[in-house]
Each structure stands twice: as structure tokens, then as C-alpha cells.
Amino acid sequence: METLVVGAGEMGRWVADTLGETGPAEATVAFLDRDPAVAADAAASRPHAEAVDTDAGGPFDVVCLAVPMSAVPAAVASYADRAEHAVVDVSGEMTDAVAALREHAPNCERASFPPLFAPPRVPGNVAAVIDADGPYVAALVEAIETGGNDVFETTPEEHDRAMGTVQAGAHAAILAWRLAGEEVREEFHTPVSTALADVADTVTEGSPAVYAEIQRAFDGADGVAEAARRIADADAEEFAALYERARGDREGRERHD
Is 87 within 8 Å of 105 (Cβ atoms)? Predict the structure, then answer.
């Protein structure tokens, strides 16, 4: 299976590694990036990969878009015609991505596979919208699952709504806590603040551009800010009501699990 991976950053390299380690036999990857040096670097340590320039015509069996979320529609429009069988993306926002896939690859297999983790933390959950199934999309799903990941199906609307809570809202809450807090001696930390500090370290180990894309794409930060203001302004009775609401939300999640 010959795959053109557009975008040679962390997500593009994750795709290449997944195909190289658990993909179909003889799977190959061609990296294309707006910075040719990045594509060359990605290919250098992967014997099944090569770097190509924008004139690489193909066709390829699969074209995979691993670009920033805001760039997906334009990238699909530019590179979908290089695919003979399937066009997929792993970028993270589904509504516009799936719409672009439908528009520009109407005769191909189509899927969106945004991982719910940063590549250094594989394996994990991978959301999937399989818009037009077939053997090439099935081979990608098999490779992702064989790599230890859990692929679960969703819809673009459900995914993007959930990302407002689990990404945009969660990141905003953690970053705000880190920015608002003062540095304290280690001995002062509680189990809660220690756990928050660990999560904040995880959030801030990545790329600010990626986290900015998440805030742009999904609602969530405003809700966190509003909730924090309600807590700050609450009297004892209102605080108790908010606390019980939070407790109920937790218990509801535990019942669901």
C-alpha cells in the first residue's frame, strides 16, 4: 500500500510508524511537507519512507492529510486527486474535514481518524468517522488497532462537540490554573494540586500552535471561564449547589463507565 502523507510533523510520523510497524506488508510512505527539510528528516529514519516534493504526481493508493486542522479543507482540495483508492485525515476536527473529503474525493474511500492523544503517548483512543468504507480504509483501521489503539466510531457532530469538553475546556482549565497559581514549596502540595501539576506538565510539553488550533476549532474555554467566575462570586449556598452539581456530574460519569 503506497501512502502519501501530507504533513511530516508528529501526526504524520505517527501514521508512517503505524503503517511501517503494523500495516500491510510492503507498505510504503511518501512524506510531503511545506518544508522539504522536515519531510526529509521524517523519511531519514524510516526505511519504508521517502520524501517527495509538491510535484510528486502519484497516483498513491492512499492520501492521508496530517496537517493543522484549519488547513485540512485546502489540503484535501489540493491533494485528493493524488489518491487512487482512499483519502483520509488524522488532524482533529471532523465537521469541515469530512465535508471536504466528500466534496473532493467523491469516488474514493473516505475516513477521518483523529487520535485522542499526542504521538509520544501512544497507544490510545482513536475516533473514527468512516464515511465511505472499503479495503484500504479497513487496512488502516486494522493497522491502528494492531498497534494497540482502540478505534471507536462516532459522527463529526458528536466528536466536535465532545472536543469542546475534553480538549478545549480541559486545556483552558489546566492552563488557567497554572497561569493563575504562584510557585510554592513542594511540601505545600496536596494530592489534588500534585495531580494538576502533572497534568499541566503534560499539556505544556507540546506545541503552542497545536493547542491554539484546538482553542480556535472547539468551544469550551468560555464555559470554563464562566464556571470559574460563578465559583469565585458564589456565597455559601450557591457554592454548595455548584459543588453538588459537580458531584452529580462525576457520579453520572461513573455510572456510564
Answer: yes
